[in-house]
C-alpha cells in the first residue's frame, strides 16, 4: 500500500509541474494584444457660452491624445499658421497648409487618416 501512495503522490507532483509549465508558457503562445490607440476626446470649452463654441461639430483633441498619436504615427498634423510662423517652429513632421489655402489644398490630405490641425 505505501508503494501505491508514493505512486499517486508522484503522479500528482508531475501533474502540478505540467500545469505550472503550461501556465508559464501560455503567454509565449498567445498573440499579443494590439497597442491601444488614442481616441479623440471632445473637450468642454470653458469661458464660452454653450451656443458660441466655434465649429461645434469639430472634435477637440487633448494634448495627451495628440502626443500619443504623434508617437504612434497615427495622425497627420497640419499647421495652419502662415509659412513664416511654420518656418520658425512646428511639430516635427507636420505639414504646412496656411489657413488661407486650406480649402484649396484639402484634396492633398488623405481623408482616411486622422488629421489634427493646429495653430499655436
Describe the model.
This protein is of the alpha/beta class. The protein has 4 helices and 3 strands, in the order H-H-E-H-E-H-E. It has helices at residues 2-29, 63-71, 83-88, 102-105; strands spanning 75-79, 95-96, 114-118.
What's the short story on this structure?
This protein has 120 residues and is α/β, with parallel strands linked by helices.
Label this structure with key terms.
alpha/beta; 10% strand; three-stranded parallel beta sheet; 120 residues; 39% helix
Question: Biggest sheet, strands in spatial order?
Answer: 2-1-3
How confident is the prediction overall: mean pLDDT? 81
**Computed structural class:** alpha/beta
| Overall number of strands | 3
Low-confidence stretches: 41-48
**Distance between the ends:** 84 Å
Helix content: 25-40%
Question: Main sheet, how many strands, which sense, barrel?
Answer: 3 strands, parallel
User: For the CA atoms, what is the radius of gyration?
Assistant: 28 Å
| Shape assignment | rod-shaped
So how many helices? 4
Hey, roughly how much beta strand do the residues contain? 5-15%
Order of helices and strands: HHEHEHE
What does the secondary structure layout of this molecule look like, with pairings?
Elements: H1 2-29, H2 63-71, E1 75-79, H3 83-88, E2 95-96, H4 102-105, E3 114-118
Amino acid at each position: 500500500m505505501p508503494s501505491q501512495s508514493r505512486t499517486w503522490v508522484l503522479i500528482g507532483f508531475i501533474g502540478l509541474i505540467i500545469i505550472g509549465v503550461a501556465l508559464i508558457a501560455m503567454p509565449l503562445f498567445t498573440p499579443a494584444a494590439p497597442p491601444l490607440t488614442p481616441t479623440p476626446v471632445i473637450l468642454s470649452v470653458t469661458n464660452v457660452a454653450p451656443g458660441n463654441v466655434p465649429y461645434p461639430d469639430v472634435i477637440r483633441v487633448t494634448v495627451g491624445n495628440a502626443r500619443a498619436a504623434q508617437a504612434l504615427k497615427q495622425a497627420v498634423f497640419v499647421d495652419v499658421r502662415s509659412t513664416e510662423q511654420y518656418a520658425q517652429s512646428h511639430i516635427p513632421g507636420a505639414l504646412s497648409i496656411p489657413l488661407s489655402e486650406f480649402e484649396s489644398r484639402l484634396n492633398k490630405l488623405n481623408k482616411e487618416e486622422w488629421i489634427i490641425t493646429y495653430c499655436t
